[in-house]
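User: Could you check the structure of this?
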Amino acid sequence: MNAQPGKNNNDDQPAAASPDSSGAFTVTALQSGPPCCVPEPMIEVERLCLRYGRTPVLQDVSLTINRGCISALIGPSGCGKTSFLSSLNRLTDLIPSCRVEARIRIDQIDVYSPKIDVIALRRKVGMIFQKPNPFPLSIRRNIELPLREHGLRHREQLHEQVELALRHVGLWEEVKDRLDVSAFSLSGGQQQRLCIARALALRPDVLLLDEPCSALDPIATGVIEELIESLRGRLTAVVVTHNLDQARRIADYAAFFSNRDGAGRLIEHGSKEQIFQTPQDALTQAYVNGRKG
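Assistant: Sure, the predicted structure tokens are below.
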């Protein structure tokens, strides 16, 4: 995808926990993010083919996503968009029948190298699911648990990171007096923001979001959209959405997937202006204009 100018959100970023060479966490200041949408590949997917058992789901998908941008994956249900996301941080490994053939590089790391540390990969490439999935623990423990698992033990540092993560998603003022109550006491929108805070606490370089607003009301959806937009320039976000208006609002780029010849394929990708205003493929044109292709 070609570069597209956008907003740069580098001001006053908080401190955060970051892994040192041993994998343990130390508290450091977040570095200023790169300018939004610099023409520098962050994710490079070449000839991705994915199947469940004998059923092909994705065929011959190649896509480059630039660093610091928000990319929306759009297309009808069942064309492999979620499977595409899952292949990026190897959640597909958890499905015994799934087979992936591809060359995928994220920040020059070969995702499917036999030498890859999958746990470290998933720390680098976070995932937010369609339905909020907080742990059955307190609000505080939802943030502390992944930090503890990655080596942060000091109580004061943990408290600092909990506050920073919750502030980053706009939850701190809403929950600061009830950090030790169950995360399930939160509304759906608050739970989704908590899940995003939990992912951001590990300082990922990439955040994958699979229809993060589909279970939320319009007000909560607006809050999540603003949160996603605030990440522009700080990390690379890839969002699956069936809401075309949402894609128009938040994305820098869009990629249209559809079923063709018995499998999901990438039909067209480019800036959101190109995809929504001047699509080149008839299938894309039909889809973005609400017509059956």
